Amino acid sequence: MSSTTSPLLMVPLDLEIHSRARHLAAQQNTVEKGKRVYLNALAVYAVHSYLKWLQIPTNFQESDCWNPVKAALSNAADLVIPNVGILECCPVLPQETVILLPDNENRIGYVAIQFQESLDSVQLLGFAPAFDEVNLPAQLEVSQLQPIDALLQQITRLEEAIAFLQTDDSVAVQVRSVLDNKPLSEIVAKFELLYRTGDEFEWRYAGGEILAGDTLAVGATREITQQDDSELQDLAEMLLEKLAQIWGNVA
């Protein structure tokens, strides 16, 4: 990330992006669905524009919300940050004080976008980091949001951890061998959530379960033995100790 200075939180929406969003909405089978797709598309564009100002790249065109078929099948307002993860961009209508969180997996966090009566601009209200998917809340009060700078801090944390896992450090090398070419961003996001929300006494065992799950996910057909469990727990504990040195105190 090349900048730590936040611009103004109002993001303009030009006629071209409105036209593209309307075209996408017109392909939906109900007016209500079309409205939701329209707002999702504008919300994703607003966050993309904000990150672009900060020279943080996004795969804006690859977002599911811009695909007519995928948009029809889900309520995704996703924005991909390459090699980091996926943000959910949540529209908030005028006078609303509650943000409905869609049941979408593998998000690194949620950005709330406040719409006004006039749609020529929107306001970025704030950020909420990822929740445990097992206990994902259905909604979030606007008052519970962190400042938008927290989004930049979250991206930085994930980038720092991914950079570490690409080094020749012995722990990083072991983790890469366990994951067998699975994207590092996925394991980093899981460990960041554990580090931020779990008690320290949980790190070893919960971290071992994360590594065991990802080991099986890359195609292992054998069962994880008790010895494997212990080795993965050792590795998870060492990884979290390394990440603790990198991250320090996480809000």
Automatic annotation (TrEMBL):
Domain of life: Bacteria
Name the record gives this protein: DUF1822 domain-containing protein
